[in-house]
Structures are given as structure tokens and as C-alpha cells.
From TrEMBL, chain A:
Record-linked InterPro entries: THDP-binding, Transketolase_CS, Transketolase_N
Coiled-coil stretches noted in the UniProt entry, renumbered to this chain: none
Keywords on record: Metal-binding, Thiamine pyrophosphate, Transferase
Originating species: Streptomyces albireticuli
Span of domain Transketolase N-terminal: 14-262
The name this protein goes by in its record: Transketolase
Automatic annotation (TrEMBL), chain B:
Keyword Cell membrane: no
Transketolase-like pyrimidine-binding domain: residues covered: 21-184
Any one Pfam family match given in the protein's UniProt record, by short name: Transketolase_C
InterPro entries registered for this protein in UniProt: PDH/Transketolase, THDP-binding, Transketo_C/PFOR_II, Transketolase-like_Pyr-bd, Transketolase_C
Keywords for the protein's UniProt record, in alphabetical order: Thiamine pyrophosphate
Protein name: Transketolase
Listed GO MF terms: magnesium ion binding
């Protein structure tokens, strides 16, 4: 059993609940981006419950740390994580995909805790550079975290921002890459390969940390404390599994978008809960 | 009032007066004065070279060169603006309106953030730099975007007025600037008000609506030419393309027999299109005739003045359109 956070629960317990909420949203008639939401659950949970300085009761608090979900197709993962952190009641997630609801399939800033509309890929890191520049001009000790998908790194604007962040020594900017290795058509390496990814970031002037993206303790160690190296932005390359938590889609590109109707929904929840019980037994 | 379209940048041979200044230089100097006085302001540059040698004084850390990376430029501006800053962003207009436009749309306009995009080399002002640097689409692109204010100063004095006017505009602003010097407009016009057409000449036969330095001068020269033939043309300097002064256009469409638009832009989507949209919906049967670059990549090569003439952005073309406008039934 790992360390508990402020509410007396473990990060794993929070992650478990977030996965269930994601599965529930995918049962909506519109379906949802299942695989990439599941792969980043521990990343978001660790950030929201253990790393980010924020108050869910004051989502606009000017002193808060920022999280920009650049891989905006993971919006249901973000909404679930925000609800679990207490930004709004989890019952409101039932409105995902309904007409006139605010829970769109890419992050909608009308949702408490969502900082920016994203999802057209390659926008998050430039925004983060802007936020981090403001922190420096203001003499603020705030931090900005930008969660990127690995397929998203094929967008050129990511590297424009990476260069700018290093050139301007923005050490309060932290990029987290959800390195699940898959994009819609299959492996990122078969599409337009990203390796050697750590070397690439290092060559762009960043401090690079590599962690197991489902290990909350490792994530806490990597994401906490800043600046990691004064004058340099940090990137955390988090190895993850697309569709994590549902063995029958884990590591498969087909988990990218799913509609879990009826029996599929029940089955997914049952599998998640069985896994959770097994984890408790072995802990 | 006599109007001639002189070669820019040369002293007045009769008076020896100082030559007109490029509006981008005016923008630079006004901004250099504004930045130290207002901590919210940030100048984001994309290696334009425009700010070489500028002494920012106490605001030096608020001038940030982000290099040759226009998409990032717009995203960074949005991040800063979301944080309460007011960024002035500098690039060439075709890069703002094409290469970086998704970032302008999603990061800036969608969030209704007070970013000021100062775009130089607009229209054909890049002249001999060629089609890659001509910007004949920016008015179309920028006026489509919700929340965006689109401003086009016609001379140096107007540039200063409009840069200062930006302070009071809550959302994003696109400021369309040229490259070289352009002739000053005749003195004595009323002050500029954002969203209100500047009436440069009265006339009750036709209305000439122009935006930008050469188009406005061409409209004034055409009005002179028409007056000699007994046709009285009103001239509106439409320095604000969005929000468009629909009241002025409505009055023009109801009281004069035709509206002729003039712009340094493709005919598709620019000022002429915007005016036509307004006038057509009035249903008063007033024709709108456009003087603009046709459906081509600015035929010919050469400098700005030459290209304007080769592409029919001339006083003669404006006068010709006005003459050919059908009589009102």
C-alpha cells in the first residue's frame, strides 16, 4: 500500500475510481477516447492529488499551478480526474455527450478546472511557454504542467515550443509525455518514429526524466519539486499502456475510441473491479 | 483638394518636408513608448528585425524574441494573455493569417484573449519579395474569426491612433501594416474611431469605400477625377474592417447609386466581400463593385506600386467602376 494523500486515500484508489468514471462515460451513445484516457490516469491523478498547488473550490485562484492537457482527445480522462479531485460532483459526468452539455469530447474551459480548449494537437506546449513566461515576468513560483500525447510529438509546433522554452530558460514548465506508443493507425514508431525520444528532448535543452507512467510513486518523485535543474525546462517521459486497466484492449490501437454499450460496459467495470480487488489482495 | 499618388519615402520636392514614415516603423516607436509605462504589455517578436536597436528601458524583459516559429508565437501570446498580460505579437501578415492561423483561431480567438497581432508586409507591400510574401488573404481570414477586431491604418498618423486605440479593445486585434513608407493622407480628417468609417469626402452620387494606404489614396484620386465629370463621390476610409461600420454602409447604399470598394487584397473574402454582404442584405438594389486583386497570385513581378497597377488597384479603375455602375431604378 502506497502513501495516502490528503483525503486519506491512496493515489491508486483515486486512479481506480477515475478509470471507472472513464468507462462510464464511454457507455454514452457517443462513446469516448478510451485508450488514451486510460493510459494517463496515474499521471493526472498524481498531478491533481499530490503535485499541483491548487484548490478545487477556487478553480480560478490566481496562485494556482496550471495543467494543460495538450492531448485534448483525452478530455474524458481529464473530466474524470477533475471530478475525482472535487472540482465538480462526479454525477455531472453523466452529462458527457448530451446535447447542450458542457462536457465536450475535447476539453471545454467552461468545465471547472479546465484551463484551455485543446485537442487540435500541438497547441499545449506553446500555451505552456506563455504561462511560464508570465511566471518569470511576475517573479512567481507557480508551475505549469503540459500533458502531451506521444503521437502528438509529430506536430512541429511542439518542437517550436520546446526550443523556445529552453532558449528562454523556463524552468517552471514541465512537459509530461504519455508515452503509450500508439496512435490511431498503430505504433508511433511505424507511423513517424519518435525514438530516440529522450535524446531528442535532451538535444532541445530539456532535463529529461523517464518513469513508469503507471507507478504513482515514481511519478510523484519525477513531478514533485521544481525547478529540477535551474534554468532548464523538464520533460517527464512516462511509459504507459494504452487502454490500461482493461486487459482485452491494453496496448491495442483499437482502444483509441470506444463505445461501451450494455454488456460491454458491465464487463469493463467488472474487469476493473476484479483487478482492483486483486491489487488489494497482493498489497 | 488635389490628390496624387506619389512615390513613397521621398521628400516633398516643393516643400522639402520630411518623407512619410512606414507605418510599421510608427508602430514600433509607439510600442517602444507604451511598453515601459504599462507592465501588462509584452512584445513578442518572431525575428522580424523590426525591433533591432530599440531601447526598451525598464521593459527590456518584456521584449521576447521567440525566433522563426509563428505557430508557437501565437500560442505563447495566448498563454501570456490568459495570465493577464497584453501581448503585441509581430510577424508578417501572410504568416499570421496562414501559417499560424490555427493557433490564432484556437488559442487566441476562441479564448477571446487581448492579443494584438501586428502584421507587417500586408497586401502587395512585400513587392519584389514575391508571392510567398504577398498577403492577399489576411482580411478574409481574420474577419471570419469570432471576437477579432481588424484594423487597417492608411498612413503613419492613423497607425499611431490605432495602436493607441488597441488599449481599449478587450479581445484580440489584427493590425494590418505595410512594409515601406506610404504617402500621408490629406490633413484635416476627423479622428479615427474604431468601428466607425472615416468620412474623407462627401458626395451623393456614388460611395467609394477603401481600406489601407494606396486604396484610400486611389479612392480620393478617383473622386477627384469623377468630380471633374460632374459625379460626386463620397469616400469612406474603412480602417476598421471588423466590426464593419454597417450604419455608414447602410446610409451609402440607401442614398448613393453604387458602392465601389478598393483594397489591396484578393477580391474573395476581403473588404469588398464584407461590404457586399451588408449591402445585399439591405435589399435596396445598390450594386457593389470591387476593385481588388483577381483570382491570381498577383500577376507580374515588381515593387508594390508596380504590382498594384498591374493588378488594377488604381484610381482609374475605381473611377471606371463608379462610372459603369448602373443607374438606380
Amino acid at each position: 500500500m502506497t502513501e495516502t494523500v490528503a483525503d486519506g486515500r491512496t493515489l491508486e484508489e483515486h486512479a481506480q475510481r477515475v478509470r471507472e468514471l472513464i468507462v462510464d462515460m464511454c457507455a454514452n451513445p457517443e462513446g469516448g477516447h478510451l485508450g488514451g484516457s486510460m493510459s494517463m490516469v496515474e499521471i493526472l491523478v498524481t498531478l491533481y492529488h499530490s503535485v499541483l498547488r491548487l484548490d478545487p473550490g477556487e478553480p480560478e485562484d490566481p496562485g494556482r499551478d496550471l495543467l494543460v492537457l495538450s492531448k485534448g482527445h483525452g478530455a474524458i480522462g481529464l473530466y474524470a480526474a477533475l471530478a475525482e479531485r472535487g472540482f465538480f460532483p462526479e454525477e455531472e459526468l453523466a452529462a458527457y455527450g448530451t446535447p447542450d452539455g458542457v462536457l465536450t469530447a475535447h476539453p471545454n474551459p467552461a468545465v471547472p478546472g479546465v484551463e484551455m480548449p485543446t485537442g487540435s494537437l500541438g497547441h499545449g506546449l506553446p500555451l505552456g511557454v506563455g504561462f511560464a513566461l508570465d511566471f518569470r515576468l511576475s517573479g512567481s513560483d507557480r508551475r505549469c504542467f503540459v500533458v502531451l500525447g506521444d503521437g502528438e510529438l509529430q506536430e512541429g509546433s511542439v518542437w517550436e515550443a520546446a526550443m523556445a522554452a529552453a532558449a528562454h530558460r523556463l524552468d517552471r514548465l514541465v512537459a509530461v509525455v504519455d508515452r503509450n506508443g500508439l496512435q490511431i493507425t498503430g505504433s508511433t514508431e511505424d507511423a513517424v518514429g519518435l525514438e530516440p525520444l529522450a535524446d531528442r528532448w535532451r538535444a532541445f535543452g530539456w532535463t529529461v526524466l523517464e518513469v513508469d507512467g503507471h507507478d504513482t510513486e515514481a511519478l510523484r518523485a519525477a513531478l514533485g519539486g521544481a525547478p529540477r535543474v535551474p534554468g532548464k525546462p523538464t520533460v517527464v517521459l512516462a511509459s504507459t499502456v494504452k487502454g490500461k486497466g482493461l486487459p482485452y484492449v491494453e496496448g491495442q490501437a483499437r482502444s483509441h475510441y470506444a463505445r461501451l454499450a450494455g454488456r460491454q460496459h458491465k464487463r469493463a467495470l467488472a474487469v476493473l473491479r476484479a483487478r482492483s480487488r486483486r491489487t488489494e489482495t497482493t498489497a | 483638394m488635389s490628390v496624387t499618388v506619389a512615390e513613397p519615402g521621398s521628400p516633398d520636392v516643393r516643400t522639402g518636408a520630411a518623407p512619410p514614415r512606414p507605418n510599421r516603423d510608427v508602430y514600433r516607436d509607439v510600442l517602444a513608448g507604451l511598453l515601459p509605462a504599462d507592465e501588462r504589455l509584452v512584445c513578442l517578436d518572431s525575428d522580424t528585425g523590426l525591433f533591432s536597436g530599440v531601447d526598451w528601458g525598464t521593459a527590456a524583459d518584456r521584449y521576447v524574441n521567440l525566433g522563426i516559429a509563428e505557430q508557437n508565437l501565437m500560442g505563447v501570446a495566448a498563454g501570456l494573455a490568459k495570465s493577464g498580460r497584453v501581448p503585441f505579437v509581430n510577424t508578417m501578415s501572410t504568416f499570421a493569417a496562414t501559417r499560424a492561423v490555427e493557433a490564432v483561431k484556437l488559442d487566441i480567438a476562441l479564448n477571446n484573449l487581448p492579443v494584438r497581432i501586428a502584421a507587417t508586409h500586408s497586401g502587395l507591400s512585400a513587392g519584389h519579395l514575391g508571392s510567398t510574401h504577398h498577403s492577399l488573404e489576411d482580411l478574409a481570414v481574420m474577419r471570419m474569426l469570432p471576437h477579432m477586431t481588424v484594423l487597417v491604418p492608411a498612413d503613419a498618423a492613423a497607425t499611431e491612433e490605432l495602436v493607441r486605440a488597441c488599449a481599449d479593445i478587450p479581445g484580440p486585434v489584427y493590425l494590418r501594416l505595410g512594409r515601406g513608407a506610404t504617402e500621408d493622407l490629406p490633413a484635416g480628417a476627423e479622428p479615427l474611431r474604431v468601428g466607425r468609417a472615416q468620412r474623407l469626402r462627401e458626395g451623393d452620387d456614388v460611395t467609394l469605400v477603401a481600406t489601407g494606404p494606396y486604396p484610400v489614396l486611389a479612392a480620393l484620386a478617383a473622386a477627384e477625377e469623377l468630380a471633374a465629370e460632374g459625379v460626386e463621390a463620397a469616400v469612406l476610409n474603412m480602417h476598421t474592417v471588423k466590426p464593419l461600420d454597417t450604419a455608414a454602409l447602410t446610409a451609402a447604399a440607401r442614398t448613393t447609386r453604387a458602392v465601389v470598394t478598393v483594397e489591396e487584397h484578393w477580391a474573395a473574402g476581403g473588404l469588398g466581400s464584407a461590404v457586399a454582404e451588408v449591402v445585399a442584405e439591405l435589399g435596396v438594389g445598390c450594386p457593389v463593385l470591387r476593385v481588388a486583386v483577381g483570382d491570381s497570385f498577383a500577376a507580374g513581378t515588381g515593387g508594390q506600386r508596380h504590382l498594384l497597377e498591374r493588378n488594377g488597384i488604381t484610381a482609374a479603375a475605381v473611377a471606371d467602376r463608379a462610372r459603369r455602375a448602373p443607374a438606380r431604378h
